[in-house]
Amino acid sequence: MSDPKPSRKDRPPPKRPQDPDGTRRDILDTALREFAMNGLSGARIDEIAARTKSSKRMIYYYFGDKEGLYLEALENAYRTVREGEAKLETEGLPPPEALRRLVEFTFDHHHEHEDFIRMVMIENIHHGQYLERSDVIRGLNVTAIDNIASIYRRGVNSGDFRPGLDPLELHWQVSALCFFNVSNRATFSSIFGRDMGAPNEQAKLRESTVEMVLRFVSR
User: Fold this and answer.
1) So which domain of life are we looking at (predicted)?
2) Buried b (16+ CB within 10 A) or exposed e, 180-206
3) Which listed residue, of 3, 114, 173, 176, carries a Cα 20 to 30 Å from 60's Cα?
């Protein structure tokens, strides 16, 4: 029987890299791809260490254990999408245009970050148990609801949007359309014999997704 792994506080720090922040980011980016491809149980710290030219010891020093690395990779994936939303600068736009820009961004982000979609799917397999431990993710996603609620409220006040909708449900609906576009693309394409990931198909789906949301909220 192997000796138990020493706790994080008991382990001596590894030799400090010249760019510790860059090394940490590289580990998180690589871990995201590894977890997205193989899940929490199938991911291997050895693989992540080899691909980042770091060491298992360094990874454990930064993140504690594999579950700690998984949670931080998940947090980082959510942080990326929320930081992108924050750069949209929708406050000065008419509400329909602001909502259009938000839906377009969500569609494009999910299309371009398939690892994020896979990570969310994996976390749902785990019934959200790791996400529940994260105050970071809860804080990040409050801003998402605040943003869409602000756009919707302005649209109701301007007469563009119908009243009585729940911003959280609206966020759910936007997410559902954009999420399905990635999560079920392979099976949908195979079943119906049409490549839904082709550029022309994606362009049509992007525009119809925006139109569906705008028609749903419009008066």
Assistant:
1) Bacteria
2) ebbbebeeeeeeeeeebeeeeebeebb
3) 114
